[in-house]
Every structure is written in C-alpha cells, then in structure tokens.
Amino acid sequence: MTLQSVSKSFGTGPTSVVALRDVSMTFPQGTFTALMGPSGSGKSTFMHCAAGLERPDVGAVYLAGADITKMSERRLTVFRRDNMGFVFQSFNLLPSLTARQNITLPFLLNGRRADRKWVDEIVERMGLTERMSHLPAELSGGQQQRVSIARALVTRPQVIFADEPTGALDTRTGTGILHLLRETVDVYGRTLIMVTHDPRAAAYADRVVFLVDGGIVDEMRSPTVERTSAWLSRSDV
Amino acid sequence: MLRLALRSVSTRKARFAGSLLAIALAVTVITAGGVLLQSALTGDRGSPRFDAVTLIVTGNSHLPVASVNGQAIDAGADPVGDGLPPPRLPLAVAKRVAQVSGVREVVPDVSVYSQVVKVGEPSSIVNADGAMRGHGWSSSRLTPYRLRDGHPPVSPDEIVLDGRFAARKGLGTGDSADVVTAVDGTRRYRVVGVADPATPGPSHATAVFFTDQTAARLSGDPTRVDAIAVFAESHEDVTRLASRVRDAAGDGTLVLTDTSQAEPSADSGAYVATTAFLGIMSAVAGFVAIFVVAGTFSLLVVQRRRETAVLRAVGATGGQVRRMIAAEALVVSAIALAVGVPAGLMLSRPLASLLVTLGVAPTGFHPVYGAVPVIVAAVAGIGLTQLAAFTAAGRAARVRPTEALRESAAPPRRLSRLRTLAGFAFAALSAFIVANGIATGGNKGSGDVFVVSFTLMVTATLLGPMVTARVARLVAPLIAVLGRGQGFLAAANSKANPWRIASASTPITLAVTFTCIMIFMPQTVQKLTLRESQLRIQADHVLVSADGQGLPSAVTRDVARLPGVSAVAATTPIPVRLGMGGAGGPVPTRTLMALAVVPAQVTALLDLDVKVGRLSALTDDGIAASSAAAREHGWRVGDRLPVGLPDGTRRELHLVATYDRSLGLSDVLVPADLAARHAPQALATAIYVKGETAEGLNALTKTHPTLITLSRSAYLAQMKQSSDAQTTAVYLFIMLIGLYTAISVMNMLAAATAARAREFAALRLAGSTRRQVLTMVGGEALITVAVGVFLGTLIAATTLVSSSLALTRTPVFAAPPQVYLTIVATAVVLGLAATLFPAGMAVRLRAISVIGARE
Ligand SMILES: Nc1ncnc2c1ncn2[C@@H]1O[C@H](COP(=O)(O)OP(=O)(O)OP(=O)(O)O)[C@@H](O)[C@H]1O
Ligand SMILES: [Mg+2]
To answer: Considering the domain boundaries, does residue B769 fall inside one?
Structure first.
C-alpha cells in the first residue's frame, strides 16, 4: 500500500484545519507499522485517507495496483470490503448480532458463503470458540476486541487498520490483543497499520512512523519501548 | 438482508415496539375507516317500493340543460340532483310503453308529500322520522302492500295507512286523520284500511294510499306521473324488453332494470351525510397516519446512526443499508398488519353503533366486511412504511463510515438543498391556495382553502428544523427561568439539535392543527351563518314545519289574512338545473336548490344586501344569484342562463341581481310564479312574518298541524342548536383521532428520550442530580411543545381566517378560549408526560451501568 503526496484539510475560511500536509509513505506487504504522534497530529486522518474512508484533497492512494481515490463511492465500498479490515478503539460491533454473526457480517454483505474452516480457525486462534453465540453486551471488552479482529481477518484482506485497538483495555488484555495482531502479520502475511499512543504497543511493530502537525517527521525501525518513549518525550513540547 | 433485518427486529424488540405500535395503530385506523366508509357507500340498498315490478321508467335527471357553441353540455356527476327524485314524466309515455310487446301491464305511479296527523295532535309531536309519501292505491301492488284490515280507498276522502305507522299512532280502520299536502294544505280523511309491505324492513318509507284520482290531483299536475311501473309477460327476457321499452319511452326518460334505484330510499340522504362525514374523518386520520409513520422511521434511523456507520465501515454499500432498512420496515409492517387489520375490523362494529347513536348514520347502518378495506389497509400499511423507510434510509445511506470511528457522531446541521427547496415550494403553493380560495370566494372558495392546512403542515415538516431553531431561541430565555444551569442546558440542546426538537414537535403541530380546525371550522361556519342570518332577517316571526319537510302554500295564504300582519314572505326550495361555469367550452350541468320567492315580499322581510341589479326585477323569467356563486360560475347581471326546472321544462332565465348575504339561505332565487307553475309540489321551508300577531299565529297551528311558530330570536336560537348536534359527533371523532395522535406523540417522544440514556448518564456522572437532569429534559419538552403549539396554532389560524375571508370577506372566526386552552393544555401535559416518564426511568438506572453498556 502506497500513499503519494496526500493532503487533507477540514473546513474552509478562518476555521480551516490542515490535518495532513503532503504525506507520502509505502507499507510493504507483510509488515506491521505503528503511527504515533501527539493528539491532533493527524494520525486518524492519515489512516482514514489510507483506507478510503475519507477522500484526500490532493494525492493518491494505491493498493493492489489501483488508485482508490479515483473510485466511485460504491466501488470503493466493495473494494474496501474485500481488501481492508478494521479494528477500532471502541469495539463497534452490531449489538443485535451474535459474535459469530458479527464476524461473518462481511460475507453477509458480500452475499458470499463464509469459509467455515477459515472462520473456525480464526475463532479458535482468537480464543472465542466458547463465546460464538453470545451478543456483544454479554462479552468483556477484551473479548469484544477479539471479535473485531476476527471480523477484520475473515475476508483475508491485504491491509488491516487498527485505531488505538488497546486504548480501552487493561495491560494484560491489551498484550494479548497485540500478540494476536502480530500473528496476523507473521502467520497470515497481512499488512498492518496501527495508530497508538502506547510505546509498549508500538514495540510490537516493525517500524514506527511519527506524525507532527500533519506531516511525517521521523521513522524508527525495530522500535523498543525505551526508544519510542524517549522520542515521544523529546517532541512532546 | 431479510435475515439481518429479522435479527435486528427480534433482538431490539423494545426499540421496534414503538414503531410497531405506531404502524399497527395506523393500520387499525385505516382498516376501521375503510370498512365504515365502504359500509356507508354500499349501505343504501335503494328503495324497496318497486320490488314486485320488472322495469321502472322515470324521468332522466341527467339531461344537459343547454348547449354552448353547439357543444352539448356535459351532464356528469351531480351530487345534489342524485339525491332527489327524478323529474316527472308525461302520462303519454305510459300509453306508449303499454303498447310494447312483452309488456303485460303498466301502472302509472304518483308519489307526493303527505303527512298524516292524528286529529288534535299538537305539532310538537308530529312525525319526525322523515317524509311520509302518499300514492294512488294502484301503486300498492308495486311493492306489494297487503291489506291487513279494511278495504281499499274508493271515495276521494278515504285513505289506507301503513301498518307500522297506524300502530304507532293508535289509528285504525274507521278513525279520522288529517293529511297535510302541498296542494291541499290540511284536509280530513277517513281511514278505511291498514296495509303492510309483503316483506317488511326498515328501509320502507312510511306510505299512505289515496284513490288514484286523489293522488293524481294532489300531485298538482294530473298529466304527469313520477314513475311508470312495467310488469312483463312471464318468461320475457328483461334486458331485451328494457331496450324495447327504452325505444318506446323516448328522450328524457330512463328505463331501470334495478327498480330499487328508481327513487331515493328513505335513508339515502342520511347515507350521503354519513359518507361525507366518514370521508373527512378518514382523510384526516390517514394524513395523521402518514406523518406518524414517517416520523417514527426517521427517529429510528437517527437512533441507529452509529450502528449504520459501523456497517458502512465494514463494507456495506449505501444500497445495502437502504435495503436493510426497507427489509426491517417490511418485517415491522407485516407484524403490524397482522395486529392492526383484525383490530380495525373489530373496532368498526362499536364505531358503527356509535355513529348510529350520535345520529350521524341511519339506524340500519352496520359494518359491511369486504376485501377492499383490508387490501387498502395492507397496501397503505406496507406502502406507507416503505415510503417512510425509503426517505429515512436515504439519510441513513449517506451516513459516513468515519462516524463509526469518531466518538461523537454529529448529526447533520443543515437542511439539504432539495428539502429546503421543497419546503419553499410548499410554502408558495400554500400562499397560492389561500389567494386563489379568497378570490374564488363562497362555499367553493372556503372549501378550497381547507387544503392549505395540509400543504402548510408539509411545509412545517420540511422546514421544521429551521423554524425550530428560531422558535427555540425565542423561548429559551423563558425556559432559563427553570434554573440557571438546567435552563441553559435545555436551551443549548435545543439550539444545537433542532432536528430532534423538530421531529418530536411535528406530531404535536399536527394534533393542534387538526383539532383546532375540526372543532373551530364548523363553529366558524355556524357563527358566520348566524351573523348573516341576524343581519338578514327583518321579520318578527318565522314559521317552520314540524316534520322538517316544509309548509304548504295554504299556510302562507292564511297567515297573510291574519289581522296585524303587515308582510309575509315564504321561501320555497325547488331544484333547478343550471349550466355551471362561464361562457365557452363544455359546461357541467348541476342541480342547485333555488329558493322561490315573491320579490316584493322578500325585499320587505329579508335584507339580502343586493350588490348589483334589483330584486324587484325578479319576475317572470328572472333569476338572482349570490355574489359568490356568480363569481364562481362567471355569471353577470343581464346574462341569460339556461335552466332546467323540476317538471323537465327548460327555460332561459336572465340574471337580474346578485346579493351578498346568502349564508344559511341559498345561492339562487327564482320567482314564486315560476315555481308554482313548474313545481306545484314544493313546500316552503320558512315563512317570514312581520306584525304584532303572536296569538293569531298560534291559533293557526290548530288548522295547520305541522306548523311551528317561532319568534325571530327563538328561530335564531334554534338555528344554533341544530348545528350543535352535529358538533357533538365531530367532537367525539376528534377525540378518537386525538387519542390516536396522542399515543403516537407519546410513543415518539418516549423513544427519543429513551435513546438519550447515555447522555443522561454522562450528566449524572458529571455531578448532576436526578432532579437537575429531569428539569433539563422538562425544559426541552416545553420547548418542543411550544414549537408544536406555535406552529399548529399558526396553521389553524391561517386556514380559519382564509376560509372566513373566502366565505364572507370578514376575517372573523370562532375559537372559544376555553376550548383552545384545553387543547393547548392537553398538548403540554401529553408532551411533558411522554418525555419525563421515560427520562425518569432512564435516570433511575445507575449511571455507570449505562455508560458501560455499549449502545
Ligand atoms: N471531521 C473533521 N472536521 C474538522 N476537523 C477535523 C475533522 N477530523 C479531524 N479534524 C481535525 O484534524 C486534525 C487531525 O485530527 P486527527 O483525528 O487525525 O488527529 P489524531 O492524530 O488522530 O488525534 P488523537 O490522537 O487525539 O486521536 C485535528 O486538528 C482535528 O481537529
Ligand atoms: Mg485519533
């Protein structure tokens, strides 16, 4: 996945905010990238543009050889359904559907039959086998987040986006989730892009990209908790 | 999609219960309304008087009166004329029909007003159950009537009475009875027999039989008959015979194989009134249903914004979201149908008896169950919900997936351009309707103006949020009095979220509008009529008939002879057929009830406020019209109008005057001489008298048993009373529709409030007491109700003022303050209860558990 000179601003006139300025970045297949930066620096906007949820003002976003910024709303939706998965900070499950139905929701929307073996494998890996017929309200936060990850994986997307996936979880549960996310890259070869504020979470990534005021200011390979923490305290002025 | 929808409906029973209730109620109302309307439309079985006859030949009331520019005048639907007996036929037609092969026998039939009164009975208890009709004895075979006692009338002073009537009045063979007729006035007869119809039933008009000669004389014109009954030879093919009879009878006649349609039945007027009443009520209820169902769905969609965003983020296309909502609507409406249709069918029986009890419907009125109302309800129920879902889903499909990712999803702040445009278009349409209706004037103009309440309602709904934000700003300082913090919060919420207030206030606007119009419109018409009558009537006494049919001309003659009487004027309604509309193009012919008057008399006793021409010129071939009717049809003083008279004669009359004060009188006046020649059976509805002669008048009631004498003030008071009776029925049905609206209002407000549980929890966690939260919610509810009452009052007032302007050129309308305040108070109580109750439930929950539960 590649972003080319992407810019995005919100609003017009005096209240206008530039959220992204001329950002270019490539995410090679099978890598895990963490996006970090102070609040309001444009991390979420970056991710939304990359996922085609928000249209950039200028610039292009390529995935599987196609420029998704040029697609019609409908085509983009279908493309996103097949090629991207999402894990959000708040778990965003449909309250009326059971865990299994939430996981297979993309198939329901596709009108395709779910690949049972694949679903069962993911469910087992997420440790959700016992919880499949429960409604979201009957699941803990960690379990709900695992359902979201399972849903993101189920269509075998090329890229998975995660916006602060551990933000609402305690450290131990969060660690479990991060292990699972790492596995999606190592075992299934997915490309993972994760927004986080937590240096411990960033340490699971292959590299960390730092955003400040809508621009990429630095990049760090093989991050550790200490190095990212140090970087953050430096720029957090 | 259907599976997802089913799932969604079944797990969120509570949320869907509200819309289910709203739609089920709508279906119930539509089903019940449909059944009753169909029952009223098909309830009139016609007259059973010719049951024994093969064919009936009558005059044709649908003949055009003239042609314009060589084009035949269209003689289409004629609401007044269709309820009247057909024009009379020359006796010669009977002779021609008798010659037709296959005809065994023809019987000329006469039917005349003949009120039988027991000798000495005071006028106050004279038969009030409708017109009694008199016929020649040979007509008794047409039903047939069978003699129970005595013998047929042979000499001119002998009559045979209807069995039920005779029993009720305690009359029998050998007794004497007075009979009031148009031609004779009152005359004494001997009862020589009692007869009953072979198959009795409630639809028989009360009959009295004279000798054939007497009946012919009483009809005023023995050369004409009301109908010709044809008995066929046995084994004769009725259709073929009918066509042969048609050829023989010639132009201006109708040959009917369905003999029940030959004359209006005893109940036909009542059925027409019932149909009109139910038609208006169903239209209003249907309109309310549309708004309620639409409102319910848009609320449902707003509540699920976040969920929709998740679906969109996961990859649902706009179309899929739309289809899912449509599928949910289908599931809900299917359940609603299963509940609402049986409920509506069950409700129609008590409603029918209620209508009968209230006197709106005739005694025989009962629900007729058929497929049509059920199909209409089903189509309307599913169609309405689909339409509502479609508009709501359009909004849902535009929900952006990023809303799922951001914590607080902001609802759209601005009206879409299309909606704004449509809103202004409806506003412009409303202005046009008002201007046009006032320009047209008269009954037609004021009827046209009524539509503006609907278009303004639509305008208010479309532009609601815009109006709401402004009204909220106006009302906010008042609400702030509730307490600084909470009042501020309530006002801020209302300003920031005008959509919520707007959609919640829509049903209140609707309820206030319709309640005000339905109650105040008849009162306004009554007030205007009374006002015009007061100005018009210059008489000291007004004489009316006890049986509601009218007074014979003999009464006028006798009153004129009384000492002390300085002036007498009778107003005698006769049906005239007139070409409507201006010159050029095909013109529909319609029947109007014209009043026959003597010009010199009427100018002395009625101040009609003549605008153009002179009433004294209303002689010979003159005609006068109300200014409103003249304006509507493009008539000018001096024009020659083609007119069809009750005996079938066509004449050209010229317009000699137009007058303004027509309300409660008539739109057309014709000279009394003309009426006497062409409608000898006509009776006077009122006789106006000037002079000091109360005793003389009272003495006349001895000789004229149907006569009631009233002083001017008593007459005006009676006028007020008779319209009150109708108002009761309207009140009751308004209350039913109001109940329906109230349930819907409660439902929507409750759903809107319950959906805010999270917000209330956040307030509680921020340190608000329960009381404070409730005060805030109450403040918002007050703003909602204020917006609804304000808009509703505005729309109702606009409609009422425009209608009065159209009718009488004065902006007067009747709205008793206590009634209006009751309506407003009900709206406030309902609005507050519907908001505070669910809010109270919501804040009783522990705040943290609400915040913890996602969505
Ligand atoms: N829909 C929007 N309308 C207006 N401004 C927006 C919108 N979305 C984001 N912004 C602005 O763009 C800038 C970047 O926002 P973004 O959400 O990308 O930040 P972030 O890095 O994700 O912050 P955080 O770490 O707090 O989530 C901010 O200044 C924000 O106010
Ligand atoms: Mg963010």
So the answer is: yes
Q: Considering the domain boundaries, does residue A47 fall inside one?
A: yes
Are B760 and B838 within one domain?
yes
Q: Clarify whether residues B758 and B853 are in a common domain.
A: yes
Domain end (from B241, B263, B285): B263
Q: Give the residue whose CA is nearest to atom 29 of ligand 1.
A: A40
* Residue B431, domain member (yes or no): no
| Those residues with Cβ within 8 angstroms of residue B567's Cβ, 6 or more apart along the chain or in another chain | B539, B601, B604, B605, B688, B689, B690, B691
B129 and B163 part of one domain: yes
Confidence bin at B409 (pLDDT 50/70/90): very low
User: Could you tell me if residue A149 is inside a domain?
Assistant: no
Q: What is the ipTM of this complex?
A: 0.73
Question: Does position B444 have pLDDT exceeding 70, yes or no?
Answer: yes
Instruction: Note whether residue A44 is domain-resident.
Output: yes
Q: Is B650 helix (H, G, I), strand (E, B) or coil?
A: strand
Same domain? For B481 and B618 the reply is no
Residue B90 forms part of a structural domain: yes
Most confident of A117-131, B290-304, B307-321: A117-131
Q: Is the pLDDT of residue B69 over 70?
A: no
Whether residues B403 and B273 fall in one domain: yes
CA-nearest of B784, B729, B806, B812 to B511 is B784
Q: Whose CA is nearest to atom 22 of ligand 1?
A: A44
Q: Relative to the CA of A46, which ligand 1 atom is closest? A: 18
B178 shares a domain with B149 = yes
Q: Cis omega before residue B401 (within 30°)? A: no
Element (DSSP H or E) covering residue B192? strand B185-197
Subunit contact A78:B310, Cβ cutoff 8 A: no
Tell me: do B359 and B373 sit in the same domain.
Answer: yes
For residue range B90-101, list pLDDT tens digits in order. Answer: 899 989 988 988
pLDDT of residue B854: 40
Give A78's contacts in chain B (Cβ within 8 Å): 315, 317
Interior/surface letters A168-186, b for 16+ CB within 10 angstroms, e for the rest: bbeeebbebbbebbeebbe
More confident residue, B481 or A166: A166
What mean pLDDT is predicted for residues B43-63?
84
Show residues of chain B in contact with A144, CB under 8 Å: 854
Structural domain boundaries enclosing A216: 2-8+18-94+160-234
Report the domain count for chain A: 1
- pTM of the shown model: 0.71
User: For A152-197, how does the pLDDT look when each residue is reduced to its tens digit (9 = 90+)?
Assistant: 888 888 999 988 888 777 788 788 888 888 988 998 888 999 999 8
**Ligand 1 atom nearest residue A197's Cα:** 25
pLDDT exceeding 90 applies to what percent of chain B? 18
Whether residue B200 is found in the same domain as residue B105: yes
Strand pairing class (A207-212; A58-63): unpaired
| pLDDT at res. B141 | 92
Query: Per-residue pLDDT tens for B555-592?
Result: 999 998 888 888 888 899 998 888 765 545 556 777 88
- Residue in B314, B316, B318 closest to A151 by CB: B314
Domain count, chain B: 4
- For residue A97, the chain B residues in CB contact (below 8 A) are 4, 7, 11
Give residue B248's pLDDT.
Answer: 86
- Taking the C-alpha atoms of residue B389 and residue B20, their distance in angstroms, rounded to an integer, is 13
Are B318 and B401 in contact by the 8 Å Cβ rule? The answer is no
What is the extent of the structural domain holding B678? 547-705
Q: Which of A58-72, B311-325, B656-670 has the lowest mean pLDDT?
A: B311-325
The percent of chain B in helix, strand and coil, each rounded to the nearest 5, is 60, 15, 25
Question: Which of B218, B248, B263 is at the close of a domain?
Answer: B263
**Distance, C-alpha A103 to centroid of its chain:** 16
Residue B11 within any structural domain of the chain: yes
- Could you tell me the CATH number of the domain that includes residue A30? 3.40.50.300
